[in-house]
Amino acid sequence: MNPSEHNLFDLHLLSNFVHQIINPLNGVIGTLDNIIDGTVPTERRDQRLKAVRAQLELSVLLVRNLAYFAKISTIPGALEETDPSKTCVIPQLVIEAAQFFQEPGLSKGIKIHLEDRSSQYAVRGSPELLRQVFMNLFDNAIKYSDENTDVRIRPWPQQKTGQLIVEVASTGVGFRPEEAESLFQVGYRGQEAQSRIASGTGLGLYICKRIIEEVHKGTIEAEHARKTRKTIFRLRFPEWRLT
C-alpha cells in the first residue's frame, strides 16, 4: 500500500469509527432527553436507563478498540509486553463480557448462553484483554445474528491436541468460505456483513487475533455453514488448567 492509499485507508477507517460511535451516543442523548422531559413513563425509566448504560458501554468498546489499534500499530511489540502472569478464568470473563450486551440482545430477542459455567477453565494472560476479545465477538454476534436466536459459548478440552477450545457460535448472515482468514485483517468486513450493516470499524476481529496470538499464545479461527447459517469463532489455547 503506497502512502496515498494508506492515508485514504486511515481516513476511511476513521470515518467508519466516527459513524459507529455517534449512533449509540445519539441514542443516549435522545433517551436522556425523553426521561428529562417526562416522555418516558416513571415505570419504564429503569429499563430505559439500562438501555442508555448499554449504549455507553458499546461506545467505550469502540474507543478501546481504536486505542488498542493505535497502540499496536505505532509501538512494536506493544501487546507482547503485557504482563502474562495473571490468571484468566474463562467462565468469569465470558459472563462479564456478556453483561454488556444484555440490553442490545434483548432488543433483538438474542440471548448469550454459556454452556458450561461450572468448569473453571483458566489460561495465563491478561483478563482485561481477553474480556475485550469476548466483547468484540459478542458485539459481532449481536449485530449479525438472526432475531430470536442464541449466541452459545462452549469451552471444552480437546483430548487429541490437549488444547482448551472455546467456541462462540451464532446463527445469522455469516460470511463466505473464502473470507474466513480475511475477516481478521485490519479494516476488512465481509460482503454479507456489509449487506446487513452499511458501516463498521473493521477493527474488532483484527484486535481479537492480535490479543489471542501475542498475549495468550493461542489461535483464533472462523467458519460458517451457509446451509444452517451457523457461524463459529473458535479460540484455541495450548496451555490451560482448571482452577
Task: Summarize this structure briefly.
The longest helix has 34 residues, at 3-36. This protein is α+β, with helices and mostly antiparallel strands and 243 residues long.
Describe this entry's structure for a reader.
The chain has 243 residues and is of the alpha+beta class. The chain has 2 domains: 3-74, Helix Hairpins (Orthogonal Bundle), CATH 1.10.287; 86-242, 2-Layer Sandwich (Heat Shock Protein 90), CATH 3.30.565.10. Helix content is 47%, strand content 19%. The chain is built from 7 helices and 8 strands, in the order ααβααββαββααβββ. The chain has helices at residues 3-36, 45-74, 90-99, 102-107, 127-144, 191-196, 204-214; strands spanning 86-89, 111-114, 121-125, 150-157, 164-171, 219-225, 230-237, 241-242. The strands form 2 sheets. A 5-stranded mixed beta sheet has the order 2-4-5-7-6. A 3-stranded antiparallel beta sheet has the order 1-3-8. A hairpin with a 6-residue loop joins β4 and β5. α5 runs antiparallel to α7. The N and C termini lie far apart (46 Å). The model has no long low-confidence stretch (mean pLDDT 86).
